[in-house]
Amino acid sequence: MKIKVDLSHSAKDASYDILINSNISIGTILESIGIKKRACIVTCKTVNNLYGFLISNLLNSAGIEPIFIVLPDGEIAKSIKYLSYIYDELIKSRFERSDYIIAFGGGVIGDLAGYAAASYLRGVNFVQIPTTLLSDVDSSVGGKTGIDHPSGKNLIGAFYQPKIVIIDVDFLNSLDKIELINGFAEVIKYGAVLDKDLFLYIEKNLDKIMLKDKQSLMHIIERSCSIKADVVNKDEKENGFRSVLNFGHSLGHAIETLYNYGNIKHGEAISIGMVFASKLSKELNLCGNETVNMLETLIKNSGLPTEIPKFTPEEYINAMKLDKKVEDKSIKFVLISSIGSFKFEKLDFAFIYKFLENLL
């Protein structure tokens, strides 16, 4: 199946397709978009061990020479240190603007490789081939690229759209349950605030999804990508509406920062953030107990956490003050009004502090 990210209305038409299927002829597709000579494959150790030989053969069969840059697994790679390493390798290989960078891995690899592509030679061609559920449904689509800073997550980055996103669900065959659940949090997010039918589908088919039933996975990936593509079509650079995709992320990113990007996965932090946002919504009389309970129950049944870690309210507020949605002494929060519906609210940090104080 093919989903169009339509950015023809932007100053520079950066429209592209998202291809979703199994057993995709990746080499043929890459050749068709204009890769003629070589491509740099940015990947991580685990993905390279699993699929490096396969992707190398697929590119070679299309007459494309692969140049591999293999990075450590995990959030540690999303740093200025490894961004500089990518630059070093590109320069060493005399990489040209007409060449392509291919992000082959999960969300960390996609964000890092995308930012390298956006900044090297003021912009080189870029392709996303995600290999995790998280990157399939979220980070590979929409053009957000960047790295972390010791002070906070995603503080350095740029909007830079790929030429194409190729999602082959067969890569999920090797994904362990922890990583499957990690990515599943973002699928729940789409259903919770943007698509009630998706939320109900997840409730009904949760066991199949967790067993990696291909048809069920294809459905949630297709719906998630369609939803995100529609949001990005309306607001490419997050000037307003696209902020809805940050449901659960204000507290979630604060949690990741407080853990120094270790001991907690992105999906786990976002799940806690979604439950927190739903309770905040109830406190503001935007939704009732039923909405909070439905969301919290689905998150728990998916194997994701819901309890807020025992940091102090001061620590949470200080971490949230680095959020890009902060203005003066308040933050634009994405709240839930019912399953499938949302509302933006500008909340004072003093109010959030008091609410956290009562929860912790």
TrEMBL record:
Residues 69-180 form the 3-dehydroquinate synthase N-terminal domain. Zn(2+) binds at residues 186, 249, 266. Binds 1 divalent metal cation per subunit. Can use either Co(2+) or Zn(2+). GO terms for molecular function: 3-dehydroquinate synthase activity; metal ion binding; nucleotide binding. Its main location: cytoplasm. Coiled coil: none annotated. GO terms for cellular component: cytoplasm. Residues 183-326 form the 3-dehydroquinate synthase C-terminal domain. Its EC number is 4.2.3.4. NAD(+) binds at residues 73-78, 107-111, 131-132, 144, 153. It catalyses: 7-phospho-2-dehydro-3-deoxy-D-arabino-heptonate = 3-dehydroquinate + phosphate. Belongs to the sugar phosphate cyclases superfamily. Dehydroquinate synthase family. Catalyzes the conversion of 3-deoxy-D-arabino-heptulosonate 7-phosphate (DAHP) to dehydroquinate (DHQ). This is 3-dehydroquinate synthase. It comes from Candidatus Acididesulfobacter diazotrophicus.
